[in-house]
Amino acid sequence: MGFHAYTAAGKARHTYIDSTGQEKPTGLKVMREEGLYPSVTSVIKILSNDMVEEWSRNKLIEYCASSPQELNETLAEFKDRVTENYLEDSRVAREFGTLTHKHLEEFNKVGYRNYRSDEDDSRIDSIMPEWEDYFNHNIVKVISPEQTLACPPVGLAGTIDLVFEHNTLGLCLLDYKTQNMRSGRANFYPNFSWQLALYARMYRINNFLDEDPRIISMVVNSAEETTGKRLFEKVYKPEDQEKACYIGLTLAKMWMLTISTKPYIPAGCELFRREGFEF
After folding, report:
1. Is the dihedral of CA 23, 26, 29, 30 positive or negative?
2. Dihedral of the alpha carbons of 225, 231, 234, 235, in degrees to the nearest 10
3. 201, 212 in Cβ contact below 8 A?
4. Does the reported pTM lie above 0.70?
5. Cα atoms in the 13 Å half-sphere on the side-chain side of 48
6. Are 158 and 37 in contact (CB under 8 A)?
7. Which residues contact 260 (CB under 8 A, 6 or more apart)?
8. CA dihedral (143, 217, 167, 103) positive or negative
9. Nearest alpha carbon to residue 39 among 15, 5, 2
10. What is the percentage of the chain residues whose pLDDT exceeds 70?
11. What is the pLDDT of the chain when averaged over all its residues?
12. CA 132/CA 141 separation, integer angstroms
């Protein structure tokens, strides 16, 4: 099993080179040896990922409905064909998510006056003008695009898509999620807020702030064809953010205690201090 992991300095260490020279996903053994910090996204996966599960379920239903088992096809062959199509669509979805993040990050780095896209993708061409409009109406100052951080007191690390000053909310953290929304309706799943609320608490601790930054989810519609808009925003209320942070910290503790027979408590982690546990 591999995890997204980071050094104490916030450097990504998602893979490592083994003794044969092969690149492999970073596992718990390497994390223990190097004192790495698990990513926020890794620990909250201790609960099921509603977005991925719904997408997977819908895809499998679509495949079976559009291309049912043939008369001369065994059940095993049908299963292999459906699985192959599912894995290919999963790969394409991941690649588009990465592509979207790349363009948004570039825009946030250089600003709308200097951003240029040579991408041959109509979805990117329609996403970026909407982001430019949002950027110009809401963002006073970009503090950091793609901010990596490790927070020893929380025992976690991760990458924040965007840290910025909002014109009415002040300091904010924003995270992008891509969804194939043929209906034009975005789903803001609970794990979106857990992830962002943990980032906000970690950012607050690392920067000695008096309060957590506000958090915003931005869902990007990745559908090939749509008559609606591409970007959907949700600003979380402070009380909802506080609850999400509590849930996120609880999931982190569960992950650390149950990820193997021997708990994995990163160096400097203070999540168990009040309970008086010793590991």
Report:
1. positive
2. 180
3. yes
4. yes
5. 7
6. no
7. 28
8. positive
9. 5
10. 92
11. 89
12. 14
